Amino acid sequence: MLAEEEIKLRGLNIGFSRLQGHMKRATEIIQRLEQRGRNVAGLAIGVDTGFGFVNQHLENVFEESEEKLEKAAGLAEQALEQRFAEPAFAQAMEEVLRTVAAAIDQEIGRPLEGFSIIEDEVNVDIDDDTYSATYRAESPQLKDLAVLRDRILERGVVNEWESGDVVLDDDSLDITFEKTYGAVDVMGETLFPEASVTISATQNSPEIGMTAINYDIDITLESESEHLLDILDDLKEDVDDDFSDLSDVLEEQMDIKEAAEKSIREAEEEKQELVDEAAEEGITVPAEAFGKFDDFLAQAKSALAAGNFAEAKQLAKQAEATLENIDDAIDGLREEKELKEEAEKAIQEAEEELIEKPEEEREKQEEAIKEQEEQNQDATEEVGQEEAEEQD
Question: What pTM was estimated for this model as a whole?
Answer without folding.
Answer: 0.53
